[in-house]
Amino acid sequence: MGFARACSVALVGVEGVVVEVQADLEPGVAAFTLVGLPDKSLVESRDRVRAAVVNSGAEWPQKKLTVGLSPASVPKSGSGFDLAVACAVLGAAERIDPAAIADVVMIGELGLDGGVRPVRGVLPAVLAAAEAGYRHVVVPEQTAGEAALVPGISVLGVRSLRQLIAVLGDEPVPDEPDPGRGRPDTMLAGLMVPGAGLGTGLAVQADGTSHRPDLAEVAGQGRARKALEVAAAGGHHLLLSGPPGAGKTMLAERLTAILPPLSRQESLEVTAVHSVAGILPPGEPLVGTAPYCAPHHSATMQSLVGGGNGLPRPGAVSLAHRGVLFLDEAPEFSVRALDALRQPLESGHVVVARAAGVVRLPARFLMILAANPCPCGRHTLAGAGCECPPSAVRRYQARLSGPLLDRVDLRVEVEPVGRADLMGSGGRGESSAEVAARVREARERAAERLAGTPWTTNSEVPGHELRTRLVAAPGALMAAERDMERGVLTARGLDRVLRVAWTVADLRGADRPDATDVAVALELRTGIQRGVPMRAGAR
Predict the structure, then answer these.
(1) What residues form DSSP beta bridges with 292?
(2) What is the mean pLDDT of each successive set of 10 residues along the chain, which is 539 residues long?
(3) How many CB atoms lie within 10 A of CB 383?
(4) What is the pLDDT of residue 199?
(5) Where are the beta strands (DSSP E) in 372-452?
(6) Cα(316)–Cα(55) distance, rounded to whole angstroms?
(7) DSSP string, 130-184
(8) 6 by DSSP, 3-state: which?
(9) Which of 69, 65, 163 is nearest to 113 (CA)?
(10) Which helix (H) or strand (E) holds 448?
(11) Is residue 363 within 8 Å of 349, Cβ to Cβ?
């Protein structure tokens, strides 16, 4: 009788659980039994592992073989357990030393020829292994860079099972041909989910060789540009409403250009989500810029917040984590899908419950809504010939529910562009680089003020802290308090006005917001003109 064990990782959403892969050989009729709550793709690993072992020059044991995946109560899915199963079997057959693999985490799919193919979710799997105390991991060569992002981990990237057997047995490591030389690397196909790649517009990554939209290309729209700057500086959600062609989409597409680069921890969080979702670009193991996610208005509730058969997969709110979620033509989304955003907007994560289990996914994003005033879009234009009846206008605008809009800090009317601005005689606005510099300084000022707290941006600070510890200047809240007494603001709305006021003060370099900053925040939230200059970027 032979026994050996190796380790791998089961992913539940973007969180990993270390799984012990145990192989037991006993005399009897040759059979291969796999237990431990495997899914269909994992059950099929029996045939993949057997063929890979034989084609790697090793002998398959002709005994009764039982492979157990522990803990048995955790659902296991995917082909990433193949490498650990093969090594556990070879250890039980004494082809390799069982002690050499006992504390090594192995992640990878095996081809029938013995090649090690990459799988999705390597980064969160290695993070889980590191948190559990493991220090050695074996991954496919294509994902070694992704695994190496985790500090304190020794990473071995292999191309084939034959190479791994040689390394574990202190034998000469055979040379394996580069699968990508002279032809497309088919192994990279396992890293991308069909239909979820960059070409769908689901996620847009900054590419140093491609043209990035610049704010200088936006004609006019001074008030909307300032609102965009405030949103980027404080992480505030924004509603852009106005007629078609006014520039709402152009503004939203340029928001990521003024957001600061992601910190190391934020980059790891975003990379982990994109790796699990299968949209991490090959050759770019670490996402350093804020992601941008713009789903079509026909998107279902499951595609927005996460879902799918079996264990839920990340939705658009998770793919936009630490970045921008843009909902163009927001009233055209289903009411159920829009209202499902209310919980992640408040908490920064989404909890999806299905029969197969409950998954907690990160969802700390900056939401931009774009909406027309009516079905035809001409309701606010004088003499434009809007024929929508008042009831249709009310129904259309009511698709954005009050509870959802109450969570949106900034609401700006985007007016049609004038001839002078469009033709250039009115002058162009600042470039993205100039605005991004102010945003970065404002973020640094807020981070310094919030040091030692769990918050990094003004939009995350609870209202209680804003009313007790981070207090505005004396008399600054008089206008906001009057609006609350008149019913213009809710209690949540008052807290959000305070958050925006702190961001406005940070942008102009003030120590705390004054009455003018609060008036600017009220105007940006309610749309009611307060007769104050929009001085968010002033010095």
Answers:
(1) 204, 324
(2) 92 91 94 92 93 95 95 90 96 94 95 93 95 96 93 95 94 77 54 48 43 81 90 95 89 93 93 88 82 92 84 88 95 94 92 81 95 86 79 91 92 82 67 94 94 92 88 89 88 91 94 92 83 52
(3) 6
(4) 36
(5) 410-413
(6) 42
(7) HHTT--EEEEEGGGHHHHTTSTT-EEEEESBHHHHHHHHTT-PPPP---TTSSS-
(8) strand
(9) 163
(10) helix 432-449
(11) yes
With tokens 């605005």, the residue in question is: 435
**CA geometry: angle 36, 38, 41, nearest 5 deg:** 155
Read off the amino acid at residue 488: V
**CA neighbor of 163 nearest in space, from 190, 137, 140:** 140
Residue 447, pLDDT score: 93
Confidence (pLDDT) at 354: 78
Distance CA 176, CA 161 (A): 10
- Is residue 201 classed as helix, strand or coil in its secondary structure? coil
User: For residue 451, what are the contacts with CB-CB under 8 A and spacing of at least 6?
Assistant: none
- Predicted confidence at residue 187, as pLDDT, reads 58
Strands 357-362 and 366-371: unpaired
State whether residue 322 is helix, strand or coil. Answer: coil
- If residue 232 lies in a helix (H) or strand (E), which one and from where to where? helix 222-234
459 token code pair? 């939009």
Contact 316, 310 (CB under 8 A): no
- Between CA 317 and CA 322 the distance in angstroms is 10
